[in-house]
Design brief:
- The protein is built from eleven helices and ten strands.
- It is an alpha/beta fold and 299 residues long.
- It has a six-stranded mixed sheet. It has a four-stranded parallel sheet with strand order 5-4-3-6.
- The radius of gyration is 19 Å and the shape is globular.
- The mean pLDDT is 95.
Length: 299
């Protein structure tokens, strides 16, 4: 039950999400098949990995008697938007701590405008404080400022999120040999890999940020959620195209071509980078003929 006594299933999420085969000559010449795992269709307001990552956190907040959610994100955070939408639909007050106090003096971008329209109170903090957001003294200061609240980490990635995303892996058992997903904070990959069939499937994560830090983050999430590293997973760090929310002419051209071929416009922040990486690996001979690839369209 939620803050208003509404069961989460009342949101009618579309699960399991659709798995759609597409034909692409660029992969066919390598004997490789591609399936799109359409997690973007789970819910119109809470698509993809955001629903999977939030579900158990929302339940935990409600079970503990919380009526307020506090979370973190950048100016273009899909997680902030999803948390705001969940609050509106389920009766939670929501607070979004946004990276960059200079943004408080600027008009809200479309992402933050949507979060605010869904009732989220936006609190802009300087970047130095934001980097310390997980430290106990910073969290305590936020609780003193905003009152009793359930704290969800940046990107929604914690042990509960990883456990929620394990269902994604279980939905793909027997359907694909290799599963690809774009990675921001690592929670989806941590759970996905844990849910896949051991010994028969593997996951590849494509980080959308620079820095090389994500491997450790994914492993820590799996330790917290499952007691240790689990599943067969790797990261390919080559396809961030300059960093979070950044793009390149090559990525733009790939995304436009994919949209022309398949009628699906992949977002440049996450999905296009993952697909570009997957197609590049196929050209590099990373997949043997007959391999079934599944690409998670996270939203």
């Amino acid at each position: 039950m939620t803050a208003t006594g509404l069961p989460l299933d009342a949101l009618r999420p579309r699960l399991p999400s659709p798995l759609v085969a597409i034909e692409d000559a660029r992969l066919a010449r390598h004997g490789v098949r591609l399936l799109l795992k359409r997690d973007d269709l789970i819910h119109p307001d809470l698509p993809g990995n955001k629903w999977r990552k939030l579900r158990l956190n929302l339940q935990a907040a409600a079970d503990a008697g919380h009526d307020t959610l506090l979370t973190f994100g950048g100016a273009y955070s899909n997680h902030l938007r999803a948390t705001a939408a969940a609050g509106r639909l389920l009766g939670f007050t929501t607070i979004g701590v946004v990276r960059g106090d200079e943004l408080a003096r600027r008009p809200l971008n479309p992402s933050l405008t949507r979060a605010a329209a869904d009732g989220m109170r936006l609190a802009f903090v300087d970047r130095t404080t934001y980097r310390r957001k997980a430290e106990p003294d910073v969290v305590e200061e936020l609780r003193e400022r905003f009152g009793r609240c359930y704290v969800v980490p940046e990107g929604g990635s914690n042990a509960l999120a990883a456990r929620g995303c394990a269902e994604l892996g279980r939905e793909l058992r027997g359907a694909a040999d290799v599963v690809a997903v774009a990675c921001g904070t690592g929670g989806t990959l941590a759970g996905l890999a844990a849910g896949l069939a051991p010994g028969n499937q593997r996951a590849i994560g494509f980080p959308v940020l620079k820095g090389g830090f994500l491997g450790g983050a994914v492993q820590r999430l799996q330790e917290d959620a499952f007691g240790g590293r689990t599943g067969d997973w790797t990261l390919d760090e080559r396809f961030h195209h300059g960093g979070y929310a950044r793009t390149t002419p090559g990525l733009d051209a790939f995304a436009e071509d994919f949209a022309d071929r398949h009628g699906l416009v992949p977002d440049r922040v996450y999905v296009a980078k993952m697909l570009h990486g997957l197609f590049t690996l196929a050209d590099e001979g990373a997949f043997s003929p007959g391999t079934r690839l599944a690409a998670v369209v996270t939203g």
